[in-house]
Design a protein that fits this description.
The protein is mainly α and 63 residues long. The protein has one domain. Helices cover 76% and strands 0% of the residues. Helix 1 packs antiparallel against helix 2. The longest helix is centred in the C-terminal third of the chain and has 25 residues. It is elongated and about 45 Å long. The model has no long low-confidence stretch (mean pLDDT 79).
């Protein structure tokens, strides 16, 4: 599994940012429900999800 450390690290960093942005959005801190933050959060969450799926597929050998 040492080949996937960079992919796993990127997934972890994007995941942390997605969770923090989600917490700020749900708790409605600092007007985080503005359109620019929603536009930032949606691709961030989608990218994290797709990177996780890619990581899973590479570990378990799916083409």
């Amino acid at each position: 599994m040492p080949d996937y450390h960079s992919l796993m690290g990127l997934h972890m960093i994007l995941g942390i940012f997605s969770i923090l942005l989600g917490i700020l959005f749900v708790t409605n801190r600092w007007k985080w429900k503005g359109k620019k933050y929603v536009n930032l959060g949606a691709p961030l969450w989608t990218g994290t999800f797709l990177l996780g799926v890619t990581f899973y597929m590479q570990i378990f050998g799916f083409p």
